[in-house]
Design brief:
Two copies of one chain form a homodimer. Chain A is of the alpha+beta class and 579 residues long. Chain A is 34% helix and 21% strand.
């Protein structure tokens, strides 16, 4: 990624300002943020253990960045030099505050990884530069989250207050913002006046993330009420089954309620990432498993699909159906998604476990080791062994440094219809789907918790109000949404139907395929005559079919082989009851 | 309509140029065409018999129009006066040639109705003004049709040649037309290079109509091949079951193949009219009933829906599903559709019958009287008695002035599965659906032809490639497409399902309802819990239902009562085979 950023002049944009390089500025006005996201990704990696070579590289880049910073603190490669006069005059499009937000997030992650304050101090200088400047507008929300995190990092209330100002939307009139502007930007009016998601999906997710952070630190009930309303709007009316969000290419925007087209889905990788980031914050303020279910849905499906299995090609859109057009590229002119995918995957260790006053939570499943402390200071280690999501068996070894009473909360995913939980071989009680199951006891080093989730493949149906999904099923297994991809089928995808929904799937582990996956097979049917040769309209029940086997792969793994059609929602064969 | 045109200053736009009125010009740059369409409508009415008051009104308007014409022949209320310098400099948007096309069509219709040449001569002066002007571009095709008709009316080849020049698309480079321009305008490149419908639907339909007219007069086989290719693209991939065309609001445009959303359908009234006009021309060059089937589909459904039952409110869009938003208005800023609906309904007598060398065709069914002549000059009268489309029984009395051998072609609609045809009470033979049935004999005055079409309600299914229609049915009866409208149902429309497709419909004549219609009733189901309260995704088969009766009305008659939801494609209840 850094090689690509160098190749496209994104780092040179800083070097030209410091005189280290003679070159014209390249790329759209928000390119600084892409480099910051790369630094944040690298910093997350460094948080899990030092890597001297990577750290040296990051240090060199940070040095290039800081050398471009003005003495005033201002730092933006587009609005320094010849565009200086435009600074803060076109905040609806400028991405100035957006870039600062990414700078601060990178700086905080790097500071936490290394203890080195240099990038953090640079970020703080810029933040202080505009702390009293008015009016301000986050045309693309992002800075709100970063400011709350800066407050947490420095303890300085003024950053939290600035986040509150940005969320307050008090500058609508002074900035002459039109209704269409504030709808698109998801900023510029009071966040607490929002009732539905609309406009640019990434902006809406980032704004909601920032608002949740702000609520976490202030407890302002108006925010909580708005966040709950918006979450219901998202999860009951506007989210894809993959956790992707944003239905329309035009404006990279949310659609109306139930407007969730499959092939036309925009579902930008950054928007699914924003959805996960927001739900992580909702989880943190509530401890409710419904948010972790959305995190998992987005992570394993609509986010994971964004990066190719070899890690070098990226999706900008993550549609739920395709006729085989090229979807993965190593670079985009607006290349927000690739480094965003890198930073979110690098940040995953932070999503697995959390503590509360009375114990510790296991949010996510996957092989991992936690070395942390309970909130009373007791050091604790948790070792998680599993091949999740292929198996539903998870073994956790809980080792507090000394015997301690606390609750060990294990998340029971909503999709697991039957779950068993044992502690040292004995049942811990009946677990309910979609909740955290608290195991309260005196824990001592080496205690064993074993979970067994129900990984039976499931058929899902969509709300009948979603126009494109009626009469179709999606296949899920554990947290994974599956799909049909052309290369695995004998028939052509738009002509394949799902048959006999009551029959079981065959599950087969294929270690040689797509990095190792469980393949699912099920009986289906193929149209007797290809749909492309059939009339546009004909008598109901006139279509003939022949049996066919359907082979499903996890959605995230599609588009890693030869190009071809794909679909998540598969039409169900309807028998003509007149015959 | 004329009152509305006066009220909005559309006629005054002419009067201000002649000094008869002091007023600023009003409305978009194409308003002249709306008045011309009104004149053409009035002229079609006058073709069926003189109405002195209407004629006097038209004469007065024509006088106002011609008083505004420049001595040069140029006539366009937007590009005379202060905008004169822009004339022919912005033909991609100017609608100059479009307005001339409508002027010529109005003039020809009026001339045919009355024999009065004054408007025709005015149109010819303008046509002659630009006969050698180059480059020309029909940014909105329309003039092509009018020029071929002017050639037919005057016998002057230069008008046909000008139509050929406009269709030839030889000015692409000289006018610096971009690919996106020629796609949107459906002009500017050779018509014969087209292979698919794309861009602005009305422009595409008008261009195809003009190209068919040109083919009819020249026989150029390249045109025929292109027209056949485009017709297959339209009817196999891009036409709604209502005969409406144009899927996207953005650009008022065609979508991709099978992109036929219901609620979001643009389906402009003018585009359905264009579809009918084009198919009438395809019918004229071929004598094939498949084109008449499209005419009937568009006329009885996607066009007829465009005007309210009381004739004063118009649809611009004619979607196939609605959540109840206001769809009919008496006026639009771009008011192309209302006068277009008037002229097409007024022109219907011209669609019913046609002659060929060997006889006479009955294209359309409806109570009517024809007084015309065979192509050998024999005067003939045909009287058609029927309550079609409510009844499938049609009685035709064929009365040549003297006994004559000729073929009497009766159209057997594609939807009629069983058709009986008798002549003077005796079977005329086995009729095939979707073809013209020729009855060859020696006809004498008073011969009786009786047709009986199969009016059993039918369930239609869409090609599985149409994303929004899978698992749904549309109800048809004869030429009419039916729909569910909110006010007739006990349950809420998005929560109603079609059940038991094998059961028969109940048909009930309701003379008191919506101007008199046959209502269709069928068993259905209603979701046990409203869809708005159901989760976005849940286990397949988990939805409970209760029985409900569905009441269908003809699609054309919707939105004439209290506002409410409507849908043409009704989801079919799928039984969960696992139970």
């Amino acid at each position: 990624m850094l090689e690509l950023l160098e190749e496209h002049g994104i780092v040179d944009n800083f070097r030209r300002l410091s005189g280290r390089k003679q070159a014209p500025r390249r790329g759209p006005l928000y390119t600084d943020s892409d480099l910051y996201k790369w630094i944040e990704a690298a910093a997350f990696v460094l948080q899990s253990g030092d890597q001297p070579e990577l750290r040296a590289t990051v240090d060199r880049i940070i040095d290039d960045i800081l050398a471009a910073q003005e003495p005033s603190g201002y730092l933006n490669t587009y609005y320094q030099d010849d565009k200086k006069a435009l600074r803060f005059t076109e905040m609806q499009r400028s991405h100035e505050l957006y870039c600062l937000g990414h700078l601060l997030q990178a700086a905080i992650a790097y500071y936490r990884a290394t203890g080195d304050r240099k990038l953090l101090d640079g970020g703080i200088r810029y933040a202080n530069y505009l702390i009293d400047k008015r009016p301000l507008l986050t045309g693309h929300p992002e800075l709100e989250m970063a400011l709350v995190e800066l407050y947490r990092t420095t303890g300085e209330r003024k950053y939290l207050d600035l986040a509150g100002y940005l969320l307050s939307g008090v500058e609508t009139e002074r900035l002459h913002l039109k209704p269409s502007d504030v709808r698109y930007m998801f900023s510029g009016i009071p966040f607490t006046s929002r009732t539905v998601f609309e406009g640019h999906a990434v902006r809406a997710m980032y704004a909601s993330s920032g608002a949740t952070d702000y609520y976490a630190e202030t407890g302002d009930p108006a925010y909580r009420s708005t966040l709950d309303t918006l979450w219901a709007d998202l999860t009951q009316r506007k989210m894809y089954i993959t956790g992707g969000v944003g239905s329309r290419s035009s404006g990279e925007a949310f659609g109306d309620a139930y407007e969730l087209p499959n092939g036309a889905a925009y579902t930008e990788s950054c928007a699914a990432i924003g959805n996960m980031m927001w739900n992580f914050r909702m989880l943190a303020i509530s401890g409710k498993a419904q948010y972790a279910d959305v995190i998992e849905r987005a992570l394993f499906n609509g986010i994971n699909s964004g990066m190719s299995l070899n890690g070098t090609l990226y999706c900008y859109r993550n549609p739920l159906a395709s006729d085989g057009e090229k979807i993965r590229n190593e670079w985009y002119d607006t290349t927000c998604c690739p480094p965003n995918l890198e930073r979110v995957l690098a940040s995953l260790p932070g999503y697995y476990y959390a503590t509360s006053k009375d114990g510790i939570y296991v949010h996510m499943y996957g092989p991992s080791e936690l070395k942390w402390r309970l909130e009373d200071g007791t050091p604790i280690e948790v070792v998680q062994k599993t091949t999740y999501p292929w198996s539903g068996d998870v073994a956790l070894t809980v080792s507090p440094e000394k015997a301690a009473d606390f609750a060990f909360y294990v998340r029971v995913p909503a999709w697991s219809r039957r779950t068993s939980i044992t502690v040292n071989g004995k049942s811990a009680g009946a677990a309910r789907s979609g909740e955290y199951f608290p195991i309260r006891r005196t824990w001592k080093s080496g205690d064993q918790v074993e979970l067994r989730f129900d990984m039976t493949p499931q058929l899902m149906a969509a709300n009948p109000r979603i126009p494109e999904d009626f009469g179709k099923v999606a296949v899920g297994r554990g947290p994974l949404v599956y799909c049909l991809e052309h290369v695995d089928q004998k028939g052509a995808i738009p002509d394949l139907l799902f048959a006999n929904p009551g029959a079981a799937f065959q599950t087969e582990w294929r270690g040689d395929l797509l990095g190792g996956i469980d393949v699912l097979r099920h009986g289906g049917a193929e149209l007797g005559k290809p749909s492309a040769q059939q009339p546009l309209y004909e008598s109901f029940g006139a279509v003939s079919t022949k049996p066919a086997e359907l082979t499903f792969i996890p959605y995230y793994a599609w588009a890693n082989r030869e190009p071809g059609a794909m679909e998540v929602w598969v039409p169900v064969q309807v028998s003509d009851t007149r015959r």
